[in-house]
Amino acid sequence: MPDLDVILAPALAPDDLVGLELHFLDAITTRQTPPVLLVYASPGRSISIGRYHSFCAAPEHDGINVIRRLTGGRVVGAGQGWLGLALILPTRTALLMEDTAPLKNLKPEQIMNRYARGLLAGMRALGIDCFYPGRDAITFEQREIAMCTFETDASGAMLFEAVVAHNRGMEELVHDLERIDPDGALSCRMYDAASATKVVRELARDVSFDELAGAIASGYRSSLGQTRRRELTAIESAQAQHRGQAFANSNWLHPPVAGASPMLRNRIASQLGAIEAAVALKADRTIEAARLSGDFIANSPAIAELESELRGHPLDLASVSHAVAKTFGDNENGNFFLGAGELSNLVRLIAEVN
After folding, report:
1. Domain that holds residue 71
2. Per-residue pLDDT tens digits for 304-314
3. Is residue 257 one of the residues assigned to a domain?
4. One domain, residues 22 and 136
5. Which of 236, 249, 288, 341 could lock 259 by a disulfide, CB 3.0 to 4.6 Å apart?
6. CA–CA dist 346, 323 (Å, integer)
7. 97 pLDDT above the threshold of 80
C-alpha cells in the first residue's frame, strides 16, 4: 500500500471541499483509505475565512463569496487564481521521520514546518525558492506567496491545509475584503507588490493547474514517501456533496454564540492579526458562555474544552489561568494554540473583557 494517495481536483466546489475533508478525516482514522493529499482549485471568486472568525455579513456580495475552512488561521484568498492543498493523516506525526528530536516532542509550529516541506520542494522545482520562516506564512524574497494551517480532530486525525497564490495574490484579497467586509470585522494587513507575490509573477509566464499541482505532488513524494496518483471514487464524490451540503445548511458560516446574556468583549493584536474574546456572565458573575474568535490556529476540540472549562467559574485571573493551563499547558494532550504568543496573553485577553 502506498504511503500517500494523491488526488488532483481542478474544479472542486467549496462546499464539496469541506465535505470531502470531513469524509477523509473519518475514512483515514478508520483505515478505510491511506493518508490523502488533495490538490485542488475551485471556481468563482472567494474569500476563505478561518474556523474561528466571527462573520455576520451575507455570504455573497458583488460576485465575491465567503467560505469557511475547517482549520483556523488568517483570512486568505480562495477560488479562481488560488491553488489549495489538503493533507489528511491519521495522526499529526504520521509519515514523518525522526531527525533531531523525537516526534512526540515536536511543537505545533514544527509540525507545520515538516508538512510544508513538500510544498516548498514543489515550488523550488518550478524555480521559486520560497521558505517557511515560521507561523503561517510561506514567502519568496520576504513576500508572502502561500499560507498554511492545520487542525486535529477528537480522534487525533490531522488536516494540514495550504493555499498558494497562483495568479491572484494577497494584494487582490485586500480589495475583495473591503467590498465584502467594509466595516472591518475581519482583520487583514495591507498588502502590496512589495509584501505579497504570486506564482505567475515570479515565473513571468502563465502556469497551468496541472503544472503547479503536479510539481507540488512531486514535492510531497520526495518529502513524505511513496505516493499513488488516483481519482476520486464515486463514494468519495457522493460523500463530498452530501456532507458538504449538510454542513452548509448547519449555519456553519454564522455559528451562534451560546448564552442569552450580553457579551463582554476584549480584542488584542496578535501574531497573525487579531484575537477577540467574548464572555457572557450570569447574575452571580460566573461565566455563562465564552467564545474565542479571530486569527489563530488551534485544534477545535481544545477550543471547545477551554470554553467548557470556563463555564460556571468566576471571571477572574485565577479561574481563567487555571482553565487555560488545564487546556493548553500539557504538551502530552496534543492541544495547541498558535497566534497569541505566550499563554499568559490568552489569559489576559479573556480575563480583561469589559
Report:
1. 4-248
2. 999 999 999 99
3. no
4. yes
5. 288
6. 11
7. no
